[in-house]
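Morning, I've got a small favour to ask if you have a moment. Here's the protein in full, and shout if anything looks odd to you:
***
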Amino acid sequence: MIKNPRLKLFIDFLCMTFGAATAAFAIEEFLVPCTILDGGVVGIGIIISTLSKIPLSILTICLNIPFLIFGAKKLGKMFIIKSAYSMAVFSVFLEVFAPLQNVTQEYLLAVCFGGVILGAGVGIVIKFGGCLDGTETAAILINKKFHFSVGGFVLICNVIIFALAGIVLNSFDRAMYSLLTYFITSKILDIVESGMEQTKAAMIITNDAKEISEKIYTRLGRTVTIMEGEGLVSGKKVVLYCVLTRFEIHELKDIIKTIDSSAFIAVSDVSEIIGNHVKKSGILPKETQAEKEDKK
């Protein structure tokens, strides 16, 4: 584990650069030549670029800006910075790879290899705290307010985009190839990032439970279950349990490290949630509400 925060941040941005470049290579050298769409904003950009001949790099930046502005106040500052950086690097490399000779014109090869390389690139970006597509930013915001999964929202958006592409481009076989590419990309992203569609559960053992739980609530909009525990060697401890999405894991780690660098964190996959999954509302936690009343 890298303890120097500046070195860690540098490595994060370096890896996001590599991931964004890898994703751009897959788009320009495999998918675009065969008119196979990626999902989300990039997919919309490919449609517009095909019809208008506007460079995909410019469209990607322009289409993503509204999502970044909309999410700036709701999502973490570092998440927005990393996402904006990843999107900018992605657009630059789209321009770099555009003039190069295409790797293949065979649709099946483009779908398989393009999907694998794209999934790896996007997975690396997400793993280190960034985001390449505005629809994922919108999905996170919707996930914070409603009981609708990030993966489910992105899938619905992509199905609509692919269906629209089939109508506009008058080629439903391209739409089906695009949908197949999306499934391959999602699976590879699963492997790289470890758990795209699965909800995550975090168990945190710390001496600063109150401050951490309030930070999680205010910054991520997630409530925390507080339990008492006792270590064999360390003695009495407080255990926090929180359910969140894969996009919020990186932010959770940052919250905990800034408050209690010695905290123990265990993150696991959650295959199913039964019952109410409480998220942030206008009601403050009991202790915070009481403190607020005391101040009055």
Summary: The mean pLDDT is 81. The chain has two domains: 5-193, 199-295. Strands lie at 199-206, 225-231, 235-244, 264-270.
